[in-house]
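Input chain follows. Return structure tokens only.
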Amino acid sequence: MSLTTTHTNAFIGEPEVVEDASLAEASAAWIQLKDAAIAIRELQVKDGSIPDASTGSATHEKARELVAVITAGIRALAPAFPHDADYLTASVADFDRWVSEDFGVPDFYDSLVAFQPQLHRVDGIRHLVVFPMYTQNGSSDRLVEALIVEAIWPDFIAELEAGDYGNKLFLSLRLVDFTPGYDTNSAVLFPETVAMREIPTFTWGAIFQDREAARYRRVTRAAAEITKLDMPAAAAAMLDDQALTERAFVMWDIIHDRTHMRGDLPFDPFMIKQRMPFFLYSLEELRCDLTAFRESVKIQRTLTARVAAGEALTAAEQEMLEHAPLAQYAVIFDRIFRFSITGTRVRNYDGLGGQLLFAWLHQRGVLHWTDTQLAFDWEGVPDAVVALGDAIDELYWRSIDRPKTSHWLAAYDLVRSVLTPHPASVWARGLPDEVLMGAPKGFTDAMLDDEFPLSMFFEALDKKMKPVIESTVGIRGTDL
């Protein structure tokens, strides 16, 4: 199919109708929509509204013109996205209501509820997404964002999800084109970021695996060169193959995502908005990653044993066997090389998780830094990584019999048994009685911003890797 033109009920300047989603990003409709979205962002303030000193003044008039371009673009592009017809109709209505309400705080509840991409998990299917929203690790302001995205859903992932790793909310996406909120480190599309009048039951959450994979490939390649790491052949292949790496990340993340709220957990270890010492978030995110690692080891060993016994694997199972060790490499190298040194040292829980994994493997003799060269004993790595996951699981299992702050102290002891706290740490010296007898807030307030500073290894690596990590802002798979 191709771009076609309609003149029915068209106004001057209305873009051509787009019927083929694969052509959407090159169409006049998308280009005009994207440009208008970028322009209207300059008029918005933090909550997404567009203030105007007087009714009918130039700012609101400009905003009305831009919204007209945005909605015209949505209507022109809608035929290319028939599976999103209800959402795109509701999106135009939400934009029109925003105009009629003089650009107050935007409310896109109706279109958000109508957007159900999890019902169309088909490899290569595309979506047009337009919302006022903030972007995690991007912009904290609720500005208009417009994206064209594409699903990554290979057959073996569909089979994993239909089996032991069911996760009806999980979406794996690829960025095709986007507005400035995603020209950042943001690699997720979450419904809770959208401006809306009330919070619905969320039915999906998306991760941009192409961005995750592209960042991984660039950072890991550079880190391997700097540390003189001799990569296993399968791991090295990922550095040259974007699609292969994307699929490995999908396998990692679908298991990671479903792990939250599963297992013997504290009442709610991560999801409720509560103020806790940041190392607790480190342990929860690391627990989910290590569960993905453990399950990938299980899949690899189970399928390998079946092959050794002479069984024939299905095509999907063969892909699972191929990607299971790749997911393991991704967890280790992304956690160690990127997470540990990305972002500031202010309560950086992902950074702490990467430090913890590195030190754990080093202290168990399966990671070596000798003669200024990094090396792994790969045969022993899986069991060592699983042992860290087991230690966190044991901590969680015991937590349900402990008061909250006692759980916090036990979790700190686990981290401290591996990493060295800051010499000035009050936690390391022992919290005073007035804190121990007081509210949990006192425990959190006593935590240093950089409670577990970088080791000498990571201090040196950070200096060499900083330009590489900074270069991944806004990256997509086609950039490599």
